[in-house]
Amino acid sequence: MPSIELTWHTQMDDRVCPICKALNNYVWKFVAGKDNFPNVLQVNGQNVWDVHQGSRAHGHEGFNCRCHISSEIFLSDLRERFEAKRDELKANVEAMP
Fold it and tell me: For residues 17 and 10, is the Cβ–Cβ distance under 8 A?
């Protein structure tokens, strides 16, 4: 199954809150069709995202974190399964009289 990685990025300067500094370059990994996006994301036992309450980051007055999350989708196992199916079909066609 494809896997998805979400990576937290921030500017890492003096305007970034402590929560966001701790999250910089943190990666969450999920397998599509297997893992559901969690209701609560935790880093080092601290809730940083809750679907009911939103983000705990950026809530500190005086900070301007400028964070973003990048995503990558890895399809390598899909390619392997496609190539195996292709090879199977090719063998079946070659075996035909």
Answer: no
